[in-house]
Specification:
Quinone Oxidoreductase, Chain A, domain 1, binds NADPH dihydro-nicotinamide-adenine-dinucleotide phosphate, 328 residues, alpha/beta, globular, 10 helices
């Protein structure tokens, strides 16, 4: 089974700003029965990492950080159904900000040949999220109108491409003209500059007064009211993130008054809790990537040594698409 080894990794001893992430030598392994030691080749940056760091989603401290990486199996426990040397990736296991990590074998997906590690680290968690939001939380059909907030972000660009492929009319929001242009190129037919325009008014104009069938809101506090005001009768409010702070509560009577609306606060954790669901969604994502329907846009790259700056840029709305951290 091997001996423990020392690796470089970020650790958190207190919640706070980007500077609380500390680079340290930590002891790792060997893998227990159903665990796998993954040597990272590319690490994903996700907005949830900032919630873990700040304490919005508190972690028991001290803790490792980062939840997504691609890499190579270096060692595996006897019950782990993977071979040493296989290319694998994970989305959702803590400890990705480092050179290697121990991950439960049933949380790994095999990286298909022809797909680079960087693309998988950039797109697995965000692509799985787009998959469940569009196919499971609210099954989008051709002819639906959908609202995608932060449409030029990591999840946003994937939502635009996938929803357009499904035949939906995609209305996106973004913080700048340049971001709006990127989302349009990814498939959004209409873009709203939500720092300047009234979102609900524009959505009503674009949908002949009806509103959208589903709104995917990852911004939270700042967009909450506009999202609620943009929904069609029987529409669904999918509140799946808090980039501007947590969304407030919705009184049930308010949902009735606005047309028997649905409200949900979903998490990838639940939609991929079973290994079968995880593998099925990864298969759907990789197929669309292979067919050229979903492209993963890696628009920022940082070495692990510049992780603090990567967090600053993500929270300052200075990024578009996906960001990859190089663990070399
Ligand atoms: P993004 O690349 O989308 O980055 C966040 C974007 O949100 C920014 O670029 C910015 O775009 C927009 N934004 C609006 N207001 C603010 C604000 N006050 N501060 C910072 N950003 C703001 O990140 P990800 O693709 O990694 O994640 C997108 C969202 O999806 C996050 O909220 C994340 O938590 C959520 N998520 C939820 C999952 C779930 O299962 N529930 C799974 C995965 C992600 P702009 O400048 O255009 O406004």
């Amino acid at each position: 089974m091997g001996e423990p080894q020392m690796i470089g990794a970020y650790r958190l001893h207190e919640h706070g700003g980007p500077e609380v992430m500390q680079w340290e030598q930590v002891e790792l392994g060997p893998p227990s029965d159903a665990q796998v030691l993954v040597r990272h080749t590319a690490v994903g940056l996700n907005y949830i990492d900032t919630y873990h760091r700040s304490g919005l989603y508190p972690l028991p401290l001290p803790s490792r950080l980062g939840v997504e990486a691609a890499g190579v199996v270096e060692a595996a426990g006897p019950d782990a159904d993977v071979e040493v040397g296989e290319r694998v990736a994970y989305a959702g296991a803590l400890g990705a900000y480092g050179q290697a990590n121990l991950v439960a074998a049933d949380r790994l997906v095999r990286v298909p040949g022809g797909v680079g590690d960087e693309l998988v680290a950039a797109g697995l968690l965000k692509g799985l999220t787009a998959c469940y939001l569009l196919t499971r939380t609210f099954p989008v059909r051709a002819g639906h109108s959908i609202l995608v907030h932060a449409a030029a972000g990591g999840v946003g660009l994937i939502l635009c491409q996938w929803a357009r492929y499904m035949g939906a009319t995609v209305i996106g929001t973004a913080g700048s003209e340049a971001k709006a242009e990127q989302a349009k190129q990814a498939g959004a037919q209409h873009m709203i500059l939500y720092r300047e325009e009234d979102v609900a008014t524009r959505v009503r104009e674009l949908t002949d007064g009806a509103g959208v069938n589903v709104a995917y809101d990852s911004v939270g506090k700042d967009t909450f009211q506009a999202t609620l005001d943009s929904l069609a009768r029987l529409g669904m409010f999918v509140s799946y993130g808090n980039a501007s702070g947590p969304a407030p509560a919705v009184p049930p009577q308010e949902l009735a008054r606005r047309g028997s609306l649905f409200f949900t606060r979903p998490s990838l954790f639940d939609y991929s809790a079973s290994s079968e669901d995880l593998q099925a969604m990864a298969g759907e994502l990789f197929r669309l990537m292979a067919d050229g329907i979903v492209a993963i846009h890696v628009n920022q790259r940082y070495p692990l040594a510049e992780l603090v700056q990567a967090h600053r840029d993500l929270e300052a709305r200075a990024t578009t698409g996906s960001t990859v951290i190089d663990p070399a």
